[in-house]
């Protein structure tokens, strides 16, 4: 079982990637892993590397690095974590969708929700998987994607399209937002714009320790695990003006 909880204690890595040379004579399916947590990524790689017909050609920790390596290596399948840093802005989404013409995109998310399905579809994904799925199902999904078969249940897609055509926003309202103070709301908006704690402190004219306290309160009130999830929350709930 690939548990989403595996990577809780690991900080996101930078955009640098660990790569393995690609031998064009190799008939195995090449796979790229993009996930912000090194331990979780390592678990995925161990599952893939035990399969004689699959080969992990690169590991990356953010959206920008994923785009760079997909362009460079042209893997047959790219597995992207929807919650990793740098995957939420419109330009990145558009670029990943374009690259989906050469590499099949599989997406991973902690929760099986319409919201995450919508995000996967915007990326041009052929598959939407959850992190709690059994490892054998992940392997089967990679093989299915490599054969250019879709993994998204058409009934779910139709349901989502119905919601959209009836004007139902796939990103639900954020009732938790009401629990934030005006200052915490300001901090959240700055976090969503990738501002660091020192930058937020300078912008708001407060001490860095005060910012850290605000960030901790925000995480608790929104019910998210870390800063990255808070930023994803802010964007997907459209708290951040587009």
From TrEMBL:
Gene3D superfamilies membership: 3.40.50.2300
Cited InterPro entries: CheY-like_superfamily, NreC/VraR/RcsB-like_REC, Sig_transdc_resp-reg_C-effctor, Sig_transdc_resp-reg_receiver, Tscrpt_reg_LuxR_C, WalR-like
A Pfam family: GerE
Response regulatory domain sequence ranges: 30-146
One MF term in the entry's GO annotations: DNA binding
GO BP terms in the entry: phosphorelay signal transduction system; regulation of DNA-templated transcription
Keyword Phosphoprotein: yes
Residue numbers carrying 4-aspartylphosphate: 81
Keyword Transcription regulation in record: yes
SMART domains attached to this UniProt entry: HTH_LUXR (SM00421), REC (SM00448)
Alphabetized PROSITE patterns for the sequence: HTH_LUXR_2, RESPONSE_REGULATORY
Coiled coil segments of this chain: none
Top-rank lineage group of the source organism: Bacteria
SUPFAM superfamilies cross-referenced by the UniProt entry: C-terminal effector domain of the bipartite response regulators (SSF46894), CheY-like (SSF52172)
Protein name: Response regulator
């Amino acid at each position: 079982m690939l548990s989403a909880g595996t990577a809780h204690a690991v900080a996101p890595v930078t955009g640098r990637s660990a790569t393995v040379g690609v031998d064009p004579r190799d008939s195995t399916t090449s796979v790229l892993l993009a996930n912000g947590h090194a331990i979780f990524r390592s678990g995925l790689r161990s599952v893939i590397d035990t399969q004689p017909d699959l080969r992990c050609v690169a590991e990356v920790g953010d959206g920008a690095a994923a785009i760079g390596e997909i362009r460079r290596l042209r893997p047959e399948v790219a597995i992207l974590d929807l919650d990793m840093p740098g995957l939420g802005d419109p330009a990145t989404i558009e670029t990943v969708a374009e690259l989906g013409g050469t590499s099949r995109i599989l997406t991973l998310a902690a929760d099986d929700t319409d919201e995450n399905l919508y995000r996967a579809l915007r990326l041009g994904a052929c598959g939407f998987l959850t992190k709690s799925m059994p490892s054998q199902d992940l392997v089967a999904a990679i093989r299915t994607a490599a054969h250019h078969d879709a993994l998204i249940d058409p009934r779910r897609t139709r349901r989502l399209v119905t919601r959209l055509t009836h004007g139902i926003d796939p990103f639900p309202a954020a009732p938790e937002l009401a629990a934030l103070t005006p200052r915490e709301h300001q901090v959240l908006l700055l976090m969503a714009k990738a501002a660091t704690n020192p930058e937020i402190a300078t912008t708001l004219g407060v001490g860095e320790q005060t910012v850290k306290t605000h960030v901790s309160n925000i995480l608790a009130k929104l019910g998210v695990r870390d800063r990255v999830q808070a930023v994803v929350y802010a964007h997907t709930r459209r708290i951040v003006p587009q």
